[in-house]
Specification:
Radius of gyration of chain B: 14 Å
Number of helices of chain A: 9
Largest interface: A-B, 36 and 23 residues
CATH architecture of chain A: Alpha-Beta Barrel
Helix content of chain B: 10-25%
CATH superfamily of chain B: Beta-grasp domain
Number of strands of chain A: 10
Strand order of the largest sheet of chain B: 2-1-5-3-4
Strand content of chain B: 35-45%
CATH class of chain B: Alpha Beta
Strand content of chain A: 5-15%
Structural class of chain A: alpha/beta
CATH superfamily of chain A: Aldolase class I
Distance between the termini of chain A: 43 Å
CATH architecture of chain B: Roll
Order of helices and strands of chain A: HEEEHEEHEHEHEHEHEHH
Oligomer: heterodimer
Radius of gyration of chain A: 21 Å
Chain lengths: ~270, ~80
């Protein structure tokens, strides 16, 4: 073997450009949520297995009766993870803005995963409210990562409104349906300058891999890991799938052909006996 | 008017949507302490305004009919 093989292999397996959003580099292209785990211990193990740096959290009233230990900061070390607060559950711009401001006052960072939900059943975004809140929060100095649908025009408007990343869905939140419209996701990625992080809908490792193969910058998922039979193992699978999909994208897939092309030489064959 | 004095020693305010009675003169720090809440892991909104400076909690007196929201980070996606 040539002497530089190990070096070459390791450079091939390194992402040449780490995920960078608003000038900040992140150690993983996989971002994970912290909801719906059976226990806090399981959540921590799954997050560790996922290799994620960015973890999302929600803002809620403290349960003053203390029926549950919900405070995530009792479990998650904010020095080891990048806390990305969301505005999940907000159905209008004003509420989402209020939640974002509360989250910022927690004192960790000025980043927010902005959700303005338009419909209870599908949890699809209200893009009018989303654009309005993106503009307001960006003007206030927030780094807005906007959860949106897979519509190019909305994505372009979000970028223009100041979003530092746009987060189109693969399919509805918690559905696990995988990527329903690869064409739309690719188009958004091709047309935007800010990073595109696919958020929601990834159900298993192959879904994550296919999403990354479209060339997007990263994936955010929660239920795909938390609702797996073995969330820790699934988190490890998602880590590999995101890396694998990224390498496959960078490696550049072969063209699709609807005819077979032999992989072995067609010359040098023996005389056929039949 | 037996209960009047007791009543006057307390004020009623709203905390996270529910009415609560606290001794007159309590500060926000007193309330958080009585709720066994670490000020470092909560955010407080008082009458719609976020109280950003945690070091001021001990000098913020609570008033009757104040509406407080005490929030924190929980698991979410």
């Amino acid at each position: 073997m040539a002497s530089g093989t190990a070096e070459m292999l390791s450079s091939t397996l390194t992402d040449p450009q780490p995920l960078t959003i608003a000038g900040r580099e992140f150690r993983s292209r996989l971002m994970v949520g912290t909801g719906k785990y059976a226990s806090n211990a399981q959540m921590i193990d799954a997050i560790e297995a996922s290799g994620a740096e960015v973890v999302t959290v929600a803002v809620r009233r403290v349960d003053l009766d203390r029926t549950k230990d919900e405070a995530i900061l009792h479990h998650l070390d904010p020095d080891h993870f990048f806390l990305l607060a969301n505005t999940a559950g907000c159905f209008n711009a004003a509420d989402a803005i209020r939640y974002a401001r509360l989250a910022r006052a927690a004192g960790f960072n000025e980043w927010v995963k902005l959700e303005v939900i338009g419909d209870q059943q599908t949890l699809l975004p209200d893009t009018t409210g989303l654009l309005q809140a993106t503009k307001t929060l960006s003007d206030e100095g927030f780094k807005v990562l906007a959860y949106t649908n897979d519509d190019l025009i909305t994505a372009l408007k979000l970028e223009q409104a100041g979003a530092v990343a746009v987060m189109p869905l693969a399919s509805p939140i918690g559905s696990g349906l995988g990527m329903l419209n690869p064409y739309a996701i690719r188009t958004i990625k091709q047309r935007l300058s800010v990073p595109v992080i696919v958020d929601a809908g990834v159900g298993t490792a192959s879904d994550a891999c296919i999403v990354m193969e479209q060339g997007v910058d990263g994936i955010l998922m929660n239920t795909g890991i938390a609702a797996a039979k073995d969330p820790v193992r699934m988190a490890a699978a998602m880590k590999l799938a995101v890396e694998s999909g990224r390498h496959a994208y960078l490696g550049g897939r072969m063209p699709r052909r609807e005819v077979a092309v032999p992989s072995s030489p067609s010359t040098g064959m023996l005389e056929s006996r039949s | 008017m037996m209960g009047t004095e007791v009543f006057e020693a307390e004020i009623a305010l709203t905390v996270n949507g529910a009415e609560r009675r606290i001794p007159t003169g309590w500060t926000l720090a007193d309330l958080l302490s009585s709720l066994e809440l670490d000020p470092r892991v909560v955010v407080v909104e008082r009458n719609g305004a976020i109280l950003r400076d945690r070091s001021s909690f001990a000098s913020i007196p609570l008033a009757a009919d104040d509406a407080l929201e005490i929030v924190h980070f929980v698991g979410g996606g």
